[in-house]
Design goal:
- Helix 4 runs antiparallel to helix 6, helix 4 runs antiparallel to helix 8 and helix 7 packs antiparallel against helix 8.
- The protein has about 300 residues and is α/β, with parallel strands linked by helices.
- The chain folds into 2 domains: about 170 residues; about 100 residues, de novo design (two linked rop proteins) (Up-down Bundle).
- The protein has a 5-stranded mixed sheet, sandwiched between helices.
- The two termini are about 35 Å apart.
- It is globular, with a radius of gyration of 25 Å.
Length: about 300
Protein backbone atom coordinates (compact mmCIF):
# COMPACT_ATOMS: atom_id res chain seq x y z
CA UNK A 1 0.00 0.00 0.00
CA UNK A 2 2.87 2.38 0.77
CA UNK A 3 4.47 1.57 -2.59
CA UNK A 4 1.24 2.51 -4.41
CA UNK A 5 1.13 5.95 -2.79
CA UNK A 6 2.27 8.67 -5.19
CA UNK A 7 5.28 10.87 -4.60
CA UNK A 8 5.19 13.73 -2.14
CA UNK A 9 4.68 17.32 -3.35
CA UNK A 10 4.92 20.66 -1.61
CA UNK A 11 1.59 21.70 -3.17
CA UNK A 12 -1.30 19.97 -4.94
CA UNK A 13 -3.08 23.01 -6.36
CA UNK A 14 -3.06 22.66 -10.15
CA UNK A 15 -4.74 24.74 -12.84
CA UNK A 16 -6.17 28.25 -12.64
CA UNK A 17 -9.40 29.94 -11.56
CA UNK A 18 -10.85 29.77 -15.09
CA UNK A 19 -10.45 25.98 -15.15
CA UNK A 20 -11.96 25.64 -11.68
CA UNK A 21 -15.00 27.73 -12.69
CA UNK A 22 -15.70 25.30 -15.54
CA UNK A 23 -15.99 22.31 -13.20
CA UNK A 24 -19.43 20.93 -12.24
CA UNK A 25 -21.08 22.46 -9.15
CA UNK A 26 -19.18 21.20 -6.10
CA UNK A 27 -20.56 19.04 -3.33
CA UNK A 28 -20.97 20.44 0.20
CA UNK A 29 -17.71 21.17 2.06
CA UNK A 30 -15.38 18.54 3.43
CA UNK A 31 -14.61 18.93 7.14
CA UNK A 32 -11.16 17.59 8.04
CA UNK A 33 -10.08 17.33 11.66
CA UNK A 34 -6.43 16.76 12.61
CA UNK A 35 -5.09 15.70 15.99
CA UNK A 36 -2.16 13.85 17.52
CA UNK A 37 -1.43 11.08 19.99
CA UNK A 38 1.63 9.44 21.51
CA UNK A 39 2.58 5.77 21.68
CA UNK A 40 5.37 3.84 23.44
CA UNK A 41 8.66 3.55 21.61
CA UNK A 42 10.53 0.24 21.47
CA UNK A 43 13.89 1.96 21.91
CA UNK A 44 13.30 3.93 25.08
CA UNK A 45 16.51 5.81 25.85
CA UNK A 46 14.95 7.66 28.77
CA UNK A 47 11.55 8.19 30.35
CA UNK A 48 11.08 11.47 28.52
CA UNK A 49 12.13 10.01 25.16
CA UNK A 50 10.02 6.88 25.35
CA UNK A 51 7.25 8.15 23.06
CA UNK A 52 6.76 9.24 19.48
CA UNK A 53 3.86 11.12 17.95
CA UNK A 54 1.16 9.83 15.66
CA UNK A 55 -0.92 12.27 13.61
CA UNK A 56 -4.45 11.08 12.92
CA UNK A 57 -7.37 12.73 11.20
CA UNK A 58 -10.84 12.23 9.84
CA UNK A 59 -12.45 13.70 6.74
CA UNK A 60 -16.22 14.13 6.99
CA UNK A 61 -18.31 14.93 3.91
CA UNK A 62 -21.87 16.13 4.39
CA UNK A 63 -22.95 13.31 2.11
CA UNK A 64 -21.28 9.92 2.34
CA UNK A 65 -19.12 8.07 4.82
CA UNK A 66 -16.29 9.65 6.79
CA UNK A 67 -12.75 8.38 6.27
CA UNK A 68 -9.70 8.53 8.51
CA UNK A 69 -5.95 8.47 8.03
CA UNK A 70 -2.89 8.28 10.30
CA UNK A 71 0.88 8.29 10.13
CA UNK A 72 3.93 8.46 12.38
CA UNK A 73 5.00 12.08 12.23
CA UNK A 74 8.75 11.45 12.53
CA UNK A 75 8.73 8.54 10.05
CA UNK A 76 6.35 9.30 7.19
CA UNK A 77 7.82 11.11 4.19
CA UNK A 78 4.51 11.59 2.33
CA UNK A 79 2.01 13.14 4.79
CA UNK A 80 0.57 15.70 2.35
CA UNK A 81 0.15 13.10 -0.38
CA UNK A 82 -1.56 10.78 2.13
CA UNK A 83 -4.11 13.42 3.11
CA UNK A 84 -4.66 14.53 -0.48
CA UNK A 85 -5.35 10.99 -1.69
CA UNK A 86 -7.85 10.52 1.15
CA UNK A 87 -9.82 13.61 0.13
CA UNK A 88 -9.51 12.65 -3.52
CA UNK A 89 -11.07 9.27 -2.75
CA UNK A 90 -14.08 11.19 -1.41
CA UNK A 91 -14.54 12.95 -4.74
CA UNK A 92 -12.77 16.23 -3.95
CA UNK A 93 -13.00 18.83 -6.72
CA UNK A 94 -10.75 21.87 -7.08
CA UNK A 95 -13.78 24.16 -6.59
CA UNK A 96 -15.03 22.32 -3.50
CA UNK A 97 -14.59 23.95 -0.10
CA UNK A 98 -12.45 22.16 2.51
CA UNK A 99 -12.36 23.24 6.16
CA UNK A 100 -9.42 22.04 8.24
CA UNK A 101 -9.54 22.08 12.05
CA UNK A 102 -6.46 21.41 14.21
CA UNK A 103 -4.88 22.22 17.56
CA UNK A 104 -2.50 24.68 15.90
CA UNK A 105 0.73 22.74 16.43
CA UNK A 106 3.42 23.42 13.84
CA UNK A 107 3.43 19.89 12.40
CA UNK A 108 -0.31 19.81 11.69
CA UNK A 109 -0.68 23.51 10.86
CA UNK A 110 1.54 23.14 7.79
CA UNK A 111 0.04 19.86 6.60
CA UNK A 112 -3.09 21.28 4.86
CA UNK A 113 -1.22 24.10 3.08
CA UNK A 114 -1.64 24.14 -0.72
CA UNK A 115 -3.77 21.01 -0.87
CA UNK A 116 -6.92 22.67 -2.19
CA UNK A 117 -7.57 26.17 -3.62
CA UNK A 118 -10.86 26.48 -1.70
CA UNK A 119 -9.54 25.46 1.72
CA UNK A 120 -9.76 27.17 5.11
CA UNK A 121 -7.77 26.28 8.21
CA UNK A 122 -9.14 27.15 11.67
CA UNK A 123 -7.84 26.68 15.17
CA UNK A 124 -9.86 24.19 17.20
CA UNK A 125 -11.92 25.91 19.93
CA UNK A 126 -11.67 22.95 22.31
CA UNK A 127 -7.90 23.32 22.70
CA UNK A 128 -8.25 27.09 23.23
CA UNK A 129 -10.92 26.64 25.91
CA UNK A 130 -8.97 23.90 27.71
CA UNK A 131 -5.86 26.07 28.01
CA UNK A 132 -7.95 28.92 29.40
CA UNK A 133 -9.59 26.57 31.89
CA UNK A 134 -6.20 25.40 33.18
CA UNK A 135 -5.07 29.00 33.72
CA UNK A 136 -8.34 29.84 35.47
CA UNK A 137 -7.80 26.92 37.84
CA UNK A 138 -4.30 28.19 38.57
CA UNK A 139 -5.69 31.63 39.44
CA UNK A 140 -8.30 30.09 41.74
CA UNK A 141 -5.58 28.01 43.37
CA UNK A 142 -3.70 31.18 44.25
CA UNK A 143 -6.78 32.55 46.01
CA UNK A 144 -7.11 29.34 48.04
CA UNK A 145 -3.45 29.50 49.03
CA UNK A 146 -3.84 33.07 50.20
CA UNK A 147 -6.93 32.21 52.24
CA UNK A 148 -4.88 29.59 54.15
CA UNK A 149 -2.22 32.08 55.29
CA UNK A 150 -2.07 33.48 58.80
CA UNK A 151 -4.18 36.45 59.86
CA UNK A 152 -1.18 38.72 59.84
CA UNK A 153 -0.16 37.66 56.35
CA UNK A 154 -3.71 37.98 55.05
CA UNK A 155 -3.78 41.64 56.07
CA UNK A 156 -0.66 42.40 54.07
CA UNK A 157 -1.68 40.26 51.11
CA UNK A 158 -5.26 41.46 50.76
CA UNK A 159 -4.26 43.53 47.74
CA UNK A 160 -2.63 40.47 46.12
CA UNK A 161 -5.81 38.45 46.53
CA UNK A 162 -7.84 41.12 44.79
CA UNK A 163 -5.31 41.13 41.94
CA UNK A 164 -5.58 37.35 41.61
CA UNK A 165 -9.36 37.49 41.49
CA UNK A 166 -9.06 40.21 38.86
CA UNK A 167 -6.84 37.91 36.78
CA UNK A 168 -9.66 35.36 36.72
CA UNK A 169 -12.00 38.05 35.37
CA UNK A 170 -9.44 39.06 32.77
CA UNK A 171 -9.12 35.45 31.61
CA UNK A 172 -12.88 35.44 31.11
CA UNK A 173 -12.47 38.54 28.95
CA UNK A 174 -9.77 36.78 26.92
CA UNK A 175 -12.13 33.84 26.36
CA UNK A 176 -14.96 36.19 25.32
CA UNK A 177 -12.73 38.07 22.84
CA UNK A 178 -11.43 34.84 21.29
CA UNK A 179 -14.94 33.37 21.03
CA UNK A 180 -15.88 36.38 18.92
CA UNK A 181 -12.66 36.32 16.90
CA UNK A 182 -11.22 39.52 18.39
CA UNK A 183 -7.59 38.44 18.59
CA UNK A 184 -6.15 41.94 19.05
CA UNK A 185 -8.17 42.64 22.20
CA UNK A 186 -7.40 39.14 23.54
CA UNK A 187 -3.65 39.67 23.12
CA UNK A 188 -3.87 43.12 24.74
CA UNK A 189 -5.68 41.64 27.73
CA UNK A 190 -3.08 38.89 28.11
CA UNK A 191 -0.37 41.53 28.05
CA UNK A 192 -2.21 43.36 30.85
CA UNK A 193 -2.28 40.11 32.85
CA UNK A 194 1.47 39.68 32.44
CA UNK A 195 2.08 43.28 33.58
CA UNK A 196 -0.17 42.76 36.61
CA UNK A 197 1.61 39.55 37.59
CA UNK A 198 5.01 41.24 37.33
CA UNK A 199 3.91 43.94 39.78
CA UNK A 200 2.92 41.48 42.51
CA UNK A 201 5.50 41.27 45.31
CA UNK A 202 6.93 38.02 46.68
CA UNK A 203 6.14 36.05 43.57
CA UNK A 204 5.83 32.40 44.65
CA UNK A 205 6.09 29.17 42.66
CA UNK A 206 2.35 29.08 41.90
CA UNK A 207 2.43 32.61 40.57
CA UNK A 208 5.43 31.78 38.37
CA UNK A 209 3.58 28.81 36.91
CA UNK A 210 0.55 30.96 36.11
CA UNK A 211 2.71 33.64 34.52
CA UNK A 212 4.52 31.00 32.44
CA UNK A 213 1.18 29.54 31.30
CA UNK A 214 -0.10 33.00 30.31
CA UNK A 215 3.05 33.72 28.32
CA UNK A 216 2.90 30.35 26.56
CA UNK A 217 -0.78 30.86 25.75
CA UNK A 218 -0.06 34.31 24.38
CA UNK A 219 2.62 32.84 22.10
CA UNK A 220 0.17 30.11 21.07
CA UNK A 221 -2.47 32.67 20.07
CA UNK A 222 0.08 34.88 18.28
CA UNK A 223 1.32 31.90 16.24
CA UNK A 224 -2.25 30.95 15.26
CA UNK A 225 -3.88 34.39 15.04
CA UNK A 226 -4.52 34.00 11.30
CA UNK A 227 -6.47 30.80 11.98
CA UNK A 228 -8.88 32.13 14.63
CA UNK A 229 -12.39 32.73 13.24
CA UNK A 230 -15.48 34.16 14.89
CA UNK A 231 -16.37 30.96 16.75
CA UNK A 232 -19.66 32.36 17.99
CA UNK A 233 -20.83 33.16 14.48
CA UNK A 234 -19.78 29.75 13.16
CA UNK A 235 -21.50 28.02 16.08
CA UNK A 236 -24.77 29.90 15.50
CA UNK A 237 -24.72 28.84 11.84
CA UNK A 238 -24.16 25.18 12.71
CA UNK A 239 -20.57 25.07 11.46
CA UNK A 240 -17.83 22.97 13.03
CA UNK A 241 -15.57 24.65 15.59
CA UNK A 242 -14.11 21.61 17.37
CA UNK A 243 -11.97 18.60 16.47
CA UNK A 244 -13.91 16.27 18.78
CA UNK A 245 -14.65 13.99 15.82
CA UNK A 246 -10.90 13.83 15.06
CA UNK A 247 -10.14 12.88 18.67
CA UNK A 248 -12.52 9.95 18.29
CA UNK A 249 -10.50 8.95 15.24
CA UNK A 250 -7.33 9.00 17.35
CA UNK A 251 -9.02 6.67 19.83
CA UNK A 252 -10.13 4.35 17.04
CA UNK A 253 -6.80 4.30 15.23
CA UNK A 254 -4.25 4.52 18.02
CA UNK A 255 -5.58 3.77 21.46
CA UNK A 256 -6.99 0.26 21.04
CA UNK A 257 -3.77 -1.45 19.94
CA UNK A 258 -1.13 1.00 21.10
CA UNK A 259 -2.13 2.76 24.31
CA UNK A 260 -5.23 1.76 26.28
CA UNK A 261 -5.92 -1.91 25.57
CA UNK A 262 -2.51 -3.31 24.68
CA UNK A 263 0.36 -1.15 25.86
CA UNK A 264 2.99 -2.57 23.56
CA UNK A 265 6.21 -0.88 22.49
CA UNK A 266 6.63 -0.09 18.82
CA UNK A 267 9.23 0.84 16.27
CA UNK A 268 8.27 3.85 14.16
CA UNK A 269 8.11 1.77 10.97
CA UNK A 270 6.06 -0.99 12.62
CA UNK A 271 3.56 1.44 14.10
CA UNK A 272 3.28 3.36 10.83
CA UNK A 273 2.58 0.24 8.78
CA UNK A 274 0.02 -1.03 11.25
CA UNK A 275 -1.73 2.37 11.14
CA UNK A 276 -2.12 2.05 7.36
CA UNK A 277 -3.81 -1.33 7.74
CA UNK A 278 -5.95 -0.09 10.62
CA UNK A 279 -7.23 2.94 8.71
CA UNK A 280 -8.01 0.78 5.66
CA UNK A 281 -10.13 -1.43 7.93
CA UNK A 282 -11.95 1.55 9.44
CA UNK A 283 -12.58 2.99 5.97
CA UNK A 284 -13.88 -0.36 4.65
CA UNK A 285 -11.14 -0.35 2.02
CA UNK A 286 -8.89 -3.21 3.05
CA UNK A 287 -10.81 -5.90 1.21
CA UNK A 288 -11.11 -3.65 -1.85
CA UNK A 289 -7.33 -3.40 -1.86
CA UNK A 290 -6.89 -7.19 -1.77
CA UNK A 291 -9.53 -7.70 -4.47
CA UNK A 292 -7.69 -5.22 -6.66
CA UNK A 293 -4.47 -7.14 -6.16
CA UNK A 294 -6.16 -10.56 -6.46
CA UNK A 295 -9.22 -10.24 -8.74
CA UNK A 296 -10.24 -13.86 -8.16
CA UNK A 297 -10.74 -13.30 -4.45
CA UNK A 298 -14.38 -13.69 -3.36
CA UNK A 299 -16.16 -14.27 -0.06
CA UNK A 300 -18.63 -17.08 0.48
CA UNK A 301 -21.43 -14.56 0.79
CA UNK A 302 -20.67 -13.02 -2.61
CA UNK A 303 -20.47 -16.49 -4.17
CA UNK A 304 -23.90 -17.40 -2.78
CA UNK A 305 -25.40 -14.16 -4.07
CA UNK A 306 -24.04 -14.83 -7.55
CA UNK A 307 -25.43 -18.40 -7.50
CA UNK A 308 -28.87 -17.13 -6.45
CA UNK A 309 -28.79 -14.48 -9.18
CA UNK A 310 -27.86 -17.16 -11.74
Amino acid sequence: MEAELGEEKWHFIDGCQREWDMLPPPRPPLIVGLDGGFIHSKDQKSRGEGWFEVIAGKSMPEEGAAKCFAYVQSYDTKPKRRLFELMKSQGLQANQQVIFLSDGANDVRELPLYLSPESEHWLDWFHVAMRLRVMDQMAKGLVNEQNMTSAQESLTEAGEELDTVDIGKQLERVKWFLWHGNVVRALDTMEDIEDQRDLLPQDGESRKKLLKAVREFRGYIEANQNFIPNYGDRYRHGEKISTAFAESAVNQVVSKRMVKKQQMRWTESGAHNLLQVRTKVLNDQLRETFVRWYPGMQTEQETQIEKKAA
